[in-house]
Amino acid sequence: MSEANRVSNRPSGRMSGGRAMAEMLRLAEVGPMFGMGGFQLLPFYDALAQLGMKHFLINDERCGAFAAEAYARVTNRPGICDGTLGPGATNLVTGLIEGLNAGTPMIAFAGDTNRAHSWKNMTQECRQVEILRPAVKELIRVEQTSRVPELLRRAFAVATSGRAGPVLVDVPEDVCHGEHDFAAEDFAIDPTTLRTPSRRIRPDRADIARAAALIAHAKRPLILAGGGIHLSQGYQALQALAEAQSIPVAHTMSGKGGIACANPLSAGLFGRYSRIANELIEASDCLVVVGCKLGEIATRRYALPSRSIPLIHLDILAEEIGRCLPAEVALWGDARAGLEDLAEALAEDGRQTRAARTDYIAEIPRRMAGWRDEAAARLDSAERPIHMARLCRELNLALPADSILVADGGFAGHWTGLLYDTKIAGRRFIPDRGLASIGYGLPGGIGAALAAPATPVVTITGDGGFNMMLGELETARRAGIGLTIVVVNNAASGYVKALQHAMFRGRYQSSDLVEMDYAAIARAMGCNGIRVEDPDRLGPALATGLAERTRPTVLDIVVTRDPARMLPAVDNRTVEIRQGDRVA
Ligand SMILES: Cc1ncc(C[n+]2csc(CCOP(=O)(O)OP(=O)(O)O)c2C)c(N)n1
Ligand SMILES: [Mg+2]
Hints:
Blueprint lengths: L2 H6 L4 E4 H11 L5 E3 L6 H10 L3 E3 L3 H15 L3 E5 L3 H5 L1 H10 L3 E7 L15 H5 L5 E4 L6 H13 L5 E7 H5 L1 E4 L22 H13 L3 E5 L2 H4 L3 H11 L3 E3 L14 E4 L7 H6 L3 E5 L20 E5 L13 E4 L2 H12 L3 H7 L1 H22 L8 H11 L5 E4 L3 H9 L9 E3 L9 H11 L5 E6 H7 L1 H9 L4 E6 L4 H10 L14 H7 L3 E5 L5 H10 L5 E6 L26
Parallel strand pairs: 2-3, 2-4, 4-5, 5-7, 6-7, 9-10, 9-12, 10-11, 12-13, 13-14, 15-16, 15-17, 17-18, 18-20, 19-20
Antiparallel strand pairs: 1-8
This protein binds thiamine diphosphate and magnesium ion.
The site of thiamine diphosphate has 19 residues, from helix 18, helix 20 and helix 22.
């Protein structure tokens, strides 16, 4: 909507706080919202109905937060969710922290007690403000109905600026139900704050010059891209710098798609699981870290990279730079802006540098081909139960270039993080690495599917994660979305079982699940359901799911039950791997 339209569209007159909330969200052109009602926020719900805005009842507020989070990752607009007083509010915590750690813009509303009666053991009452405050970038408590528009304006500004993040707006019942005479000017909104990144800041020029000098002299520079590349939408800048200077790019799980995995300069995933990237890191003489926190998984529990390799760290959050590894050059700023400035600073010597690095970049596709040959037996495996690598290969074959793959916190995310290939740049692989909760897959898939209705959306989840969220299949069906849900059925809390196998000599405790037929469950819930035990049926099953546009399809994939074969690779905690064990 144009600015002029937005102004002419502003409401005025006497209305409830809940109506004012809905009017601000309408003017902000937010997408579908997710929540579960309660008395406190009912004027808001009523206003949504009157204004014809999309709001989906979810079956657990945590799922509403997950769905809103995924929606925001796809659209770069704040995802909106709500919960009622007490348990509704506390259920939001996990999803909000996912957004906080991942830098995702979100606005969540929590109903709170009527202040005339608070602290008198009201039903559902708890100290929710204290519980929620550390889960969000900012918690805003609205103390007056008249201040609803102003504080929502603030919520958008905080959610989308700097490092984006979730904002919790705590709304006491009497503020939501109370009325005020609003003027049209009260509903002013800053259109630049409705998307991320709302404002871009460039790194210091002198720091750019130092970084450029370091890169120019390096023989084997390597870019390590994290999720910040998506937050900044710096795809073109990343590819332009990488190609102009002949610098390969490795990525974290969240950074997948910074450049297309199919690009010959892509070195794939680095960190706990890697194809060739970890070796390239060790052989590098200059690392350019972009929008990546260098946390546990990215660094294989801080074992990588060696401290002797000079490191340039570009990040929007100054305090992340140097937290885990000292940076030789700190570039504080927006990823896209920083990459553009580096490219400009290096432009003059580009041709010479490219010539000097010809052999170096030719190594990448050659090493990748070598890795593929070595992995071929797993990628092409015809074994039953189905090999996870084969499932990933079939996803690579079946999913069109513009598809979105959402991945849950268990093995589903790690296997696809390692083996799934994005064909074009962009945020098309959505793992919940902010908090790495299991259970994100289904609600995250709902949020992504509603965010991109014309795009094929597939979500992959473990059976444990799916069990947690089964109720949301009802939401997905009600929403009428053609989401394909791939359930990795290993009848186990697999990650836990694999670690118990490797580190506790197979003494399994609380890591087995009952064998379920998730396809039958899906059909009983009015969805499409296909159980797949033969790897050759994976392709047709995925095609059926992708063709279904108005109801969800659950593909129940029976994969290995052998805990010795569940991990995508050895990780450095699994030190007691015994002879004969196979680790992917
Ligand atoms: C909410 C939550 N609880 C526990 C964990 C620890 N955890 C990580 S992976 C995993 C196993 C999950 O089982 P499942 O979803 O079936 O995936 P699998 O590893 O078997 O593929 C667990 C319990 C977590 N990440 N999140
Ligand atoms: Mg499992």
